[in-house]
Structures are given as structure tokens and as C-alpha cells.
Specification:
alpha+beta; about 15% strand; Beta-Lactamase; 4-stranded antiparallel β-sheet; about 500 residues; about 55% helix; rod-shaped; 13 helices
Length: about 500
């Protein structure tokens, strides 16, 4: 952009000299056919053309050369720089004044036009770059866009972008062209520019340029621009454009840093919230059975109490139940931690659905088992799943249904085979799940408050079930039961991985 304008002005002096020489050669054959003043007018047209094409300085050179050529070749005596006719003195003075004035004014007008066009191109470039950076999410993509823009519009032979970490240490993010060899002192110069937030070479426009990427609070990095091969300095317009692009890069890096800080803050707050929830939830579930076990054992050890065999057995059964409850709570926490850490892979094989359900239901006491009914088709085929984990998912769903259903209300289990997939559901007769809670019930430690009694447990059952379904490649949701209650539905792929739609064991 700007370097093209500078190139025209550099060659403008050659154009001015060549233009006057060529015009003189063209004018000479007609010297005797027109008056000297008429040739002066043609020279004025040439000066104006040089001014509009090359600027004020080349136009001044053309004006001086035109005055000399007009005097030497078109005023008597010819081929001498002398004026013998007094009338020609006034003509010559007017020609000189008009030529110089027109050259300066036309040249400045041209320069202002070029500057305005350069400002317009610069603004368009920065607007396009800003709009492009808004859609980017990575620092490297931003660096590629900025450095490619510098290469395309300024013509720099090489450039690189360094980023600074929290301690101010710099690291190379991207360079153009790829594999560019940086100067030996590039890292040292860039660190100085970043530390003191001061550019190197920008004001002088000479040598390699180092521009700090200054944000509102710190230096985000440094923009390096290699000097041109011919050691020609960067123009003020080019330096201003480089500074603007450095500011865009700084703003982008600051936005990424602030976003990262905000995400880390959110993660810390979420971790603190989960920690508090975990402590409040788990402490009750772990301390209650421990307290009961401690009380029972302490009572058994009392010497002033005479225990008969049946009474001692009853106390030991209570201890066993409390220890099983403690074991289940700890197991749920460990299972969820393993699932959430992606440390579990399904061990799939072919199993009968009845076997899986039998294992899941056997974990409940006899009174609870009596409430469970199933609606499984007799011809339901074997399914290709992880036996233990699917049984665990059913157990958690049944446990949830029992917790939120009225006493003695039936719990229904159903299944529907859909080729390579199947749907399983567990339906209770409770109050159902409100629409506003359905987005949260599969989150860890969440326990609804609509049950007929206060639910116990760690609040991990549905979360573990959702993780098991996720690892199987399925999905889970809750819907309204029929005629009332809530129905939890698991949709799972249950066919073997053979590429056939008709897999059989």
C-alpha cells in the first residue's frame, strides 16, 4: 500500500528529467512556427502532469529544468542562458512563478489525495482485520492473520509475533515466512521492548522494528518486523499502520487472557461449590451409619447389660445394615469418580435382560422386591452390553423410584427392542418431576424435593446412571408416567459391533 506510493515518488525525479528532455526534443522541430510564450504554456502542462503523477518535489525539478530548456532552446539567442529582449524578461518571470506555483500546488494536492487514499485503505484494512479477529478463538490464528496482513500490505520481508506469559517471559507464537531466521539479538531486543513497553526502531523507521503489544494492564507480547533488504526505512504511514495492527493483536491477546482468567475463576467457584455440596451430602451419609455402628458396638461392650443371643443378633444385624449402607455410599462416590474421569470402558458381551434385572433387583430387601413389576416381552432377545454397569444403572433407577413413591406403590420396569437399539424404562407412582427440574436431576448431588419422604443417599444415583448410559453411547431422559409419576427412559445401542443389523449371540 504505502510502499507503492513511496516508490512512485522515488522514481518521480527520473520521470521529471526524462519528461522535460522528451518534451524538448518534441518541441524543437516546431520552434520557428510558434512564439516562445506558446512553448512556455506547453512546458507548464508538462509541469502540471509531473506534479499530479509524482508530487511536489519532482514537479519543482521539472519546473527548474523546463525554465532552463525554454531559455536555452526557445529564447533568443538560442543555445545560451541569456535574455536579450526586455519583453522576454517579464515572460520568463511569469513562466517561472506560474511553473513553480502550479508544480507546488498540484503536487501537494496529489500528495494529499494519496494520503487520503492511504488512510482509507488503512482504515479498510484495520476494519477487515478487526472483523476477522472477532471470529477467531486462538492466538495462533490471530497471529497468522496479523502477520499475513503485514506481509501483504506493507511488504515487510519477514515478521514474527512473540507472546508474554504471566511472568513476562516471551515465547515465539508465529513467524512469516515459515522458518524465518530471526536476528541473533531478536529475543533480547524483544524482551527489552516488552519489559519497558517501548518500541525499538519505530520512530527512526530504520533497522528491525520491535513493537510492544500494549494492553490496558500489561504488555501482551512483541511484534517483530524485519528491515527491508535494501535498508529503505519504513514510512510514517507504514509505521502508524504497524502500530495499529500491534494494538489489535494486543487487544485480542488481552481478551483471551481475561476469558481464561474468568473460566479459571468459574472453575474454582464451581469446585468450591461442589466441594461444599460433597461435604454436606457425604458427611451425613457417612457419619450416620458410622454413628449407628459405634453406638451399637458400644452398647454390646457394656458390661452392665446382659445380652441374650437373639438381642445380640438383632444388634449385629443393625450393624451389618449400617455397614452395607456405608459401603454403598463409598462405592457410589468411587464409581462416579471413575466414570467422570473416563477410567472405565464398557466390557460388553451378550446377556439376557432377565439376568441383568434379577441382579439389580436382588440388591433390595424383600419388601421392596414385592413392589417391583416388569413388562418385558417374552421374546426379548439377548443384548450386547456391560452386565455389571447396566445392572447398576437399573438398581439406581429402581432405588430412585422407591424413594419418591408412596409406600406400597408399584414400581414398573419395561423394555422395547428396536433392532440395534433398545429402550428401557423404570416408572414410579410418585408426584413426577417438575419441568424446571428435568435439566438438573442427572447432575451429581442433585436431589429433588417432591418425594413423599425425605430421600436419602448421596445424590449420585442418577448421575452415575447418566454416565453409564453415556459410556454405552446412549442417552437418558425423564418423562411423565402413565397415569402418574415419572418414567426414566434409557435408550441404548444393544447390538454387536459386526456391521450387521441382525446381530445375534
Amino acid at each position: 500500500m504505502h510502499f507503492r506510493h513511496a516508490s512512485i515518488e522515488r522514481h518521480g525525479y527520473v520521470i521529471a528529467v526524462a519528461g522535460v528532455l522528451l518534451a524538448t526534443l518534441l518541441f524543437l522541430p516546431g520552434r520557428d512556427h510558434f512564439a516562445p510564450g506558446q512553448w512556455a504554456l506547453l512546458y507548464l502542462l508538462l509541469i502540471g502532469a509531473v506534479a499530479m503523477a509524482c508530487g511536489a518535489r519532482p514537479a519543482l525539478v521539472a519546473a527548474v529544468l523546463a525554465m532552463i530548456a525554454w531559455n536555452f532552446f526557445f529564447l533568443h539567442p538560442y543555445h545560451r542562458l541569456a535574455i536579450t529582449d526586455s519583453k522576454d524578461i517579464l515572460t520568463y518571470a511569469v513562466f517561472a512563478a506560474v511553473g513553480v506555483t502550479m508544480g507546488v500546488l498540484a503536487g501537494r494536492l496529489r500528495e494529499r489525495e494519496l494520503q487520503a487514499r492511504a488512510r482509507e485503505e488503512e482504515a479498510a484494512l484495520l476494519n477487515d482485520l478487526s472483523a476477522h479477529l472477532v471470529s477467531l478463538t486462538g492466538a495462533r490464528a490471530m497471529a497468522e492473520a496479523v502477520l499475513d496482513g503485514i506481509a501483504a500490505h506493507i511488504g515487510a520481508p519477514g515478521q514474527a509475533l512473540f507472546t508474554a506469559n504471566e511472568d513476562g517471559a516471551l515465547s515465539l507464537l508465529h513467524a512469516v515466512p515459515s522458518g524465518i531466521e530471526l536476528p541473533p539479538d531478536a529475543e533480547e531486543q524483544a524482551e527489552w521492548s516488552c519489559r519497558y513497553r517501548a518500541p525499538i526502531g519505530l520512530l527512526a523507521g530504520e533497522g528491525n522494528l520491535y513493537l510492544p503489544l500494549q494492553s490496558s494492564t500489561r504488555a501482551e507480547g512483541v511484534l517483530f518486523v524485519r528491515e527491508r533488504a535494501d535498508r529503505r526505512s519504513y514510512t510514517p504511514d507504514e509505521a502508524r499502520l504497524l502500530a495499529s495492527m500491534a494494538n489489535l493483536a494486543a487487544a485480542f491477546l488481552e481478551r483471551l487472557r481475561l476469558q481464561d482468567t474468568a473460566l479459571r475463576g468459574d472453575a474454582v467457584r464451581e469446585a468450591d461449590r461442589l466441594k461444599s455440596t460433597l461435604i454436606s451430602s457425604v458427611s451425613h451419609e457417612l457419619k450416620t451409619p458410622l454413628a449407628a455402628v459405634t453406638a451399637a458396638i458400644t452398647s454390646l461392650l457394656e458390661e452392665d447389660v446382659a445380652w441374650d443371643v437373639e438381642g445380640m443378633r438383632e444388634e449385629l444385624r443393625a450393624v451389618r445394615d449400617d455397614l452395607e449402607r456405608l459401603h454403598d455410599s463409598i462405592g457410589a462416590l468411587l464409581d462416579f469418580a471413575r466414570l467422570e474421569a473416563d477410567a472405565w470402558e464398557p466390557q460388553r458381551d451378550w446377556y439376557e435382560l432377565g439376568e441383568i434385572l434379577g441382579t439389580a433387583i436382588s440388591a433390595f430387601p424383600e419388601t421392596a422386591r414385592a413392589r417391583i413389576t416388569d413388562d418385558i416381552p417374552d421374546d426379548f432377545p439377548p443384548i450386547y452390553v456391560d452386565f455389571q454397569q447396566l445392572a447398576r444403572a437399573f438398581r439406581h433407577l429402581i432405588e430412585n423410584a422407591l424413594a419418591y413413591s408412596p409406600p406400597d406403590a408399584p414400581i414398573e420396569i419395561g423394555a422395547l427392542h428396536l433392532g440395534r437399539h433398545a429402550q428401557f424404562w423404570v416408572q414410579d407412582q410418585g408426584p413426577g418431576v417438575p419441568q424446571e427440574e428435568r435439566a438438573y436431576i442427572f447432575q451429581k448431588f442433585y436431589r429433588g424435593g417432591q418425594g413423599t419422604r425425605s430421600p436419602s443417599g448421596t445424590g449420585l444415583g442418577l448421575a452415575i446412571t447418566a454416565e453409564i448410559v453415556r459410556f454405552h453411547g446412549g442417552r437418558i431422559w425423564v418423562e411423565d408416567g402413565r397415569p402418574r409419576g415419572a418414567r426414566f427412559v434409557m435408550h441404548l445401542p444393544v447390538a454387536g459391533i459386526t456391521g450387521s443389523t441382525d446381530d445375534t449371540p
